[in-house]
Structure formats: structure tokens, C-alpha cells
Amino acid sequence: MPEIKTVRIQESLLAANDDRAAALRERWRKSRTLAVNLLSSPGSGKTSLLEHTLPCLAERARVLVIEGDVETDNDAERIRRVGVEARQITTGGACHLDARMVERAWDESASAARYDYVFVENVGNLVCPASYDLGEHRRVVLLSVPEGEDKPAKYPRAFRDADLLLVTKIDLLPYLDFRVEKARHYALDVQPDLEILATSTRTGQGLDEWVAWLERARSAEYGPG
Amino acid sequence: MPEIKTVRIQESLLAANDDRAAALRERWRKSRTLAVNLLSSPGSGKTSLLEHTLPCLAERARVLVIEGDVETDNDAERIRRVGVEARQITTGGACHLDARMVERAWDESASAARYDYVFVENVGNLVCPASYDLGEHRRVVLLSVPEGEDKPAKYPRAFRDADLLLVTKIDLLPYLDFRVEKARHYALDVQPDLEILATSTRTGQGLDEWVAWLERARSAEYGPG
Q: Residue A125: what pLDDT?
């Protein structure tokens, strides 16, 4: 029964990942670091969001970005170009990050510095990353307007464990049949407590609210300052 | 060494899938059915492409669509609404179709009818589906303009084994920093023999060329008629 054996190995790998993620979360608690895991399809605008908002956040806090991709270090380069520290993980085929990869990248950076925020940009994928806890305190899922409103119904797991949904690229609303209300309905159907923000890195809409959301999340974990 | 064991089981599952895919391809050869496997990110426009072009193809050929999704049968419903026969596979969490799922869906349909074309719309995902042969004769990958030009570099496997790249949603080019030439460059870097068509289901651009490409592909496999 090769299928049953595979499922069991998968479960035991997930359990080992959960343990490591819990240990990482505890380390972050001690250093008062808020960890945010960003999930979305390829090309939904995760890197663009970070490029447009982290320079502002980094004026008043210490920020690290850990980038996950199957191949290339393009995204870490983009983050560094806006003056924010970044580490690249290339998974070499794997469709998600796991807690061990993140821990290794964290160890390489955190030996030299302390951070108030660590952003983990997962591999662009709405399926696999959803099953892997990376030790984050907040999970954020992006849905870009061109992808269509129904993605929460079709990929429920990615939305079910999220704290915040960012509807991105809303500058494209005039050119597409996308209704934010309908996307909201699909998303709340999967996760009734989901907070939702509509954003555009082109027009700047919603970006201040996103930074404020991050600051509130860090205060909620560690108190002000 | 749980990692090595997992890799070996993965390899043996892939080998079993390859065998089943080869058998399926042979069955399709006997029935003179051209099988096309469509891959892309979520929301790149796979279903929209089929909705806009299969009714035309179905006027002169027998067409079946097999839809793959993690959840919901929305996509099969959409295809049926334009008058084309469709079967839905829901993978219930798996990030890709495999040859066995497709074979089962095929058996349910092909006992009652004969088809000239079978289109398999894979789960929206640029990583996992790339490793699974579904017995197809042609693999088609879609890249929508809002996703950005660099996806072939970041998800090379999905593009490496493809025969055709469809750059979709080109009606959005005026509103985005996407250069088709740059995407072409990235894609040909990964797969120098890739054919490339630029399409839009909104304006109709490239759709006739896509249907002609399909008809040429079927002729190349089985001769005219």
C-alpha cells in the first residue's frame, strides 16, 4: 500500500516541522520579533508589496526579509535595492518553505543583529505552503485582482489559517470583472475572522493601513515599543 | 534518514505515474485522441481560454475537458455552460493531477463516446504539476501578463517540458510594466524550442492561432481528419 505509507511519512514530516516551527516562534518571542508569513500565487505582488512598504517601516524598526523561491535570488535583490536586509532561500524544486529552511536563514542573520520584524515570503503557490507552519505569528495571504474572486473557494487551506487577506492590484479593477465584495464573501466563507484590506502598490491605496496593521500586530504580541 | 527515504518513495511514485501515463498515451493513440495538459498559476486564465475557444473547435471535432482543482467543480460547470463536455476531478488537497486520476475520469467518459481532443486543466500551480506526466501529447503553459515576465526563470520546470507558451491577458499590457519580448527571452532561456502565442480572451487576439495550433498538433500526431 504505497499510498498509505506516503501519507504516514508526510504526517510525520509535518509533525517534525510543527515542532521546529514552535521552537522558532519561541526564539522570536524572546527577541520580541514579529514574524509574518506571506502566501500567494506566483505574481500576486508579494515582493512588490514589501518593496513599497518596508522602507517606511524600516525607518522606525529593524526589519529582515527571508525570500523563498524555487530558483533565482531576484526577489532578495529587489528587497536589498530598496535598502532593506534580505536573505534568499532557493528550494531547488520544493513547492514551499519549511521551518528548518527558515531557521537556517534566520541563524545566519540573527547572529549579527536583532530584528523587530521578520517577513518570510513563501514560494508562489496556493497549495503546498499552506500546510507548513514556519513559526510565524501572523499569516497573510494575497489575492490579486486578475486572479479572480473565487480563489478562496478553490484553495481554501491557504485562506483558512490566514489572519489577513490583502486584495492586491486594485488599480486594475476598472479593466476586469472583479468585485472586491464577492472576493470578500468567498474569503469569509472559508475564514470568518479574516481581516481584509484592498491595496495597490501603483496608487498607494491601502499601504498605510497595511503598515499600521503590522504595527498593531507587533504591539498585540509584545506591547508598545 | 527520513529525507532520503522520502525522496526514494517520491521517485518510485513518479516512476509508477510515468508507466501509467505511457499506457494512457498509447490508449489515446489508438483512439486518435490528442491529449493536451494545461499548466499555470491560479487565475492565469486556463478555464477562460477553454471557454472562449472550445465551442469553436467542437463544431468540427469531439472534445472532452477534464478539470483538476483542489476543491469545487466551478470550472467543469463553466465549461459545460458553453456546451462542451467536462469532468471534474477534485484532488482534496493534492497540488497536482496524476495519471491515475486522469485515467479514471477518462474511463468514465470514454466508455460512452469517442473524442478527438481531451484537454486536461491541471491544478493552478507552477511547481507540482510540472513533474507529473499525464499521458499528454502536448503540454501548454500559460503566463498571464499581471504575473510578471520573470516566472519562467523562477519556475523553470513548468516551462522546460512545455511545447507552447500562451502569454494571456495581453489586453492588460497598457496598464502594466510587462514586455512580451522580455517574457519570451526568459522562456526561451529555459526551453529554446518553445512556441509562443500572445492571447486575450477579452479582445480575441491570438485565439484563432491557438485553435489552429491545436489542429496542426493533432494532424502531426494522426494525419489530417
A: 96
